[in-house]
Design goal:
Elements (H helix, E strand, L loop, with lengths): L8 E7 L10 H4 L1 H5 L5 H4 L3 E7 L3 H7 L9 H11 L2 H8 L2 H4 L5 H29 L5 H6 L2 H9 L7 E2 L2 H14 L19 H21 L11 H18 L1 H4 L12 H12 L5 H26 L8 H16 L1 H5 L22 H30 L5 H15 L8 E2 L1 H10 L5 H17 L8 H11 L1 H4 L4 H8 L1 H17 L1 H20 L3 E7 L6 E3 L12 E10 L4 H12 L3 H9 L11 H8 L2 E12 L1 H15 L4 E5 L3 H14 L7 E2 L2 H13 L7
Parallel strand pairs: 7-8, 8-9, 9-10
Antiparallel strand pairs: 1-2, 3-4, 5-6, 5-7
Helix pairs in contact: 8-11, 8-17, 8-21, 8-22, 8-23, 10-20, 10-22, 11-12, 11-19, 12-19, 12-20, 13-26, 13-27, 16-23, 25-26, 26-27
């Protein structure tokens, strides 16, 4: 092996940008550029390089630069973590309001927070009452959710703009659990799972909330916020779009004034549509007319009037609250329940609910459903928090958000609340109107408190078809996500496949099965793509140390007698076979086949040589470019050893170059632990490996490969 002083030297030109380039002929380096007349001033004034140094192997370079190998020390790491933790910083990080409230600029920000809080409270009233019906609970539950857990989130949350409370998809998923396990006189199979207990819909809902809080706390303790990365953007898009169809279908009975049995289990959406179609002759004309009128008016407002009003003021017209007030007034004035048989909201209690313990005995039964709700709720909340944080240029702590959601849901589970989630529409309005901090949520809670204490009974005569109309119109943004399939199909067929499987499984079969199918197909797509890593052969740009793909760059040339194999991906037990197949395919020969031929004394003549075998005989060195190798395990190391030995037997050297520190240390660790005689020859760059190989070819007698 050549020493550092006597080895080959890498010569590349260096010149500052403003000085004339000498020693390099642009036409010589880039003949195509010169022929096309593109050798302009912009190209000539580019900086050039001139470096003269020995050719290093990575181990030699590490000695010269005093490289420190990684020595994992769990005790030292733990001590360092505890040493960096101070009581004051821990308290401030755990309760963020202690950090930002003393710095709050009252003169500058209070007006925006007041306006934002008032606007959000106005949106909370109709949305809360409507979405509570999705959970098969009384409408007042939605107002409880806009008050109790929101106050807790203000203390512990790190997002300044998300509006917590009801969210259609999460309420629908909770309602599915409520209808399945509650004994409300309509669920015939509710007692099948346990005859010794009687659970009301509210008990089931609060137990779901309590269980969700427990899962969120466990995820916070073990820092498992990363688990939600299983729910990709494509999956969430398809899942929420399909769930929106479930929500819209569940409102058909109220839109038409029908009384239908609740469908549960798989194909619930299909059976619900069948029940609605069969019962259409019994539909109430008054409900249909009111639904059509209110939906039309709200759509006109959202699509035409709202954009016009936005040019003059940031505060939107409260069309949903107006619908609730007008619907209540019409129902009360014309006695629609008595005269037309319309279904109305009914009793709305005043005051705050008494705290009540969730039914702990029900937790094991609903644990799986609660975990799914946890995943969906946290993913949607974090997505919204990150979107608004990016716009406002501040950071959101993902794990702290888990703690905030856990405490919020835990507190809400004692006060008749379903799991809370960030709302897309309310969050966008809260930021647009001028909200700066979560004080806007405090203002909203004060207004909601007034409604709970004194105003609630006013809405007792509100027709349920009005609330159903509000829900359907609010779903527009999620329903039109169906057009996203075109984008996903154009960008990635795998993403499109994930979208299609998730959407149709969720829509046709069930929400739970749809989410599971989406996760499985996402993991499957990741696995398949990981087993098809990218590889290519590299050639050199003449008179430079740049090496590019010979397939896509026609102005480069392959090195004589040297094959440079670029591999991008991981090398482990699952990808070893693919790695070897690609290596043999790119280089044009399989060393084992040649060895077998030699052992059988097959005579290789020029007439019997195939084209690939003829090329193989000219190859004297294979260089593995591992610049994009992300990970290697011991089985991958053993695969490299085996390949080096196979190539050695046919007088072909194999070198490794450009690997990361973690890959290099894994190679050295496996060498030292196993005590193998085959040591890897590793270079820091491709050019080092090429010059070393050329030097060895010239000095065969002094080079021991």
């Amino acid at each position: 092996m050549p020493s550092l002083s006597s080895g080959p030297v890498s010569n590349v030109l260096f010149q500052s940008k403003n000085e004339p380039v000498t020693g390099v002929d642009c036409a010589e380096i880039f003949p195509r550029l010169a022929k096309s007349g593109m050798e302009d001033e912009r190209f000539v004034t580019q900086a050039a390089l001139h470096v003269q140094r020995p050719v290093y192997q990575t181990e030699e370079l590490n000695e010269v630069t005093t490289y420190q190998y990684r020595t994992p020390d769990l005790r030292r790491t733990v001590q360092k973590k505890f040493a960096s933790c101070k009581a004051k910083s821990c308290i401030f990080n755990t309760v963020p309001i202690l950090k930002w409230l003393p710095r709050y600029n009252w003169r500058k920000n209070i007006a925006g927070d007041l306006a934002s809080g008032l606007t959000i409270a106005i949106m909370h009233i109709p949305q809360g009452m409507a979405y509570a019906l999705l959970g098969n609970l009384p409408p007042i539950t939605g107002l409880y959710m806009a008050f109790f857990p929101v106050l807790v989130y203000v203390l512990f949350g790190t997002s300044r703009h998300v509006s917590m409370g009801t969210f259609a998809v999460v309420c629908l998923m909770t309602g599915k659990v409520v209808s399945e396990y509650s004994n409300d006189g309509t669920s015939a199979n509710a007692t099948d799972f346990n005859e010794d207990f009687y659970y009301t819909p509210m008990q089931v809902a609060t137990t779901v909330t309590f269980t969700v809080a427990a899962f969120q706390m466990l995820m916070y303790i073990f820092r498992l916020g990363i688990v939600t990365t299983l729910l990709s953007e494509t999956l969430v898009n398809a899942f929420t779009c399909a769930s929106a169809f479930h929500v819209a279908t569940s409102q058909l009975k109220d839109l038409f004034g029908l009384v239908l049995p609740k469908r549960k289990g798989i194909f619930a959406l299909v059976f619900t549509i069948y029940d609605v179609a069969r019962s259409l002759p019994d539909a109430k004309v008054a409900a249909i007319v009111i639904s059509c009128v209110f939906i039309t008016v709200m759509v006109i407002n959202n699509e035409i009037l709202k954009p016009l009003l936005a040019k003059k003021t940031k505060i939107p017209f409260p069309i949903e609250l107006a619908a609730v007030v007008i619907g209540t007034g019409l129902s009360y004035g014309f006695h629609m329940k008595e005269n037309y048989g319309l279904n109305v909201v009914g009793n709305v209690p005043t005051g705050l609910p008494l705290p009540d313990l969730p039914s702990i005995s029900l937790v094991p039964t609903i644990a799986m459903e609660a975990f799914i709700i946890t995943m969906v709720s946290y993913t949607i909340t974090m997505s919204m928090a990150l979107i608004v944080a990016q716009k406002a240029r501040y950071e959101v702590d993902a794990n702290q958000e888990l703690l905030a959601l856990s405490f919020s849901n835990f507190f809400g589970s004692f006060f008749s609340c379903m799991p809370i989630t960030a709302s897309l529409s309310r969050t966008m309005i809260q930021q647009t109107v001028g909200g700066v901090t979560q004080l806007a949520s405090v203002v909203s809670c004060v207004i909601i408190l007034a409604v709970l204490l004194w105003i609630g009974p006013v809405f007792e005569s509100l027709p349920r078809c009005v609330l159903a109309s509000i829900i359907v119109v609010a779903l527009k943004s999620m329903l039109i996500q169906f057009v996203s399939l075109k984008k996903y199909w154009a960008l990635s067929k795998w993403d499109a496949t994930v979208w299609i499987v998730t959407f149709f499984t969720t829509t046709i079969i069930s929400i739970d099965y749809g989410l599971l199918a989406g996760i499985l197909i996402s993991l499957f797509s990741i696995f398949i793509q990981a087993q098809k890593p990218y590889s290519c052969l590299l050639g050199v740009v003449p008179n430079t140390d740049l090496y590019l793909d010979v397939k896509h760059y026609k102005g480069i040339q392959e090195m004589s007698g040297i094959k440079i194999f670029h591999y991008s991906g991981s090398l482990n037990f699952a990808s070893n076979g693919a790695f070897k197949s690609m290596l043999f395919k790119r280089t044009g020969f399989d060393p084992m086949k040649l060895l077998t031929a030699k052992k059988k004394d097959l005579e290789l003549t020029q007439d019997s040589l195939t084209r690939s075998e003829g090329e193989e005989l000219l190859t004297r060195c294979i260089i593995l470019d591992f610049a994009a190798l992300t990970y290697i395990d011991p089985s991958g190391v053993e695969t490299l050893r085996s390949l080096i030995e196979q190539y050695r037997q046919i007088d072909v050297a194999m070198y490794i170059c450009s690997c990361s520190e973690s890959v290099f240390e894994t190679l050295k660790k496996c060498d030292s632990y196993d005590g193998k005689s085959c040591r890897f020859v590793i270079f820091p760059t491709i050019h080092d490996a090429v010059l070393f190989s050329q030097s060895c070819s010239k000095q065969k007698d002094g080079c021991n490969t």
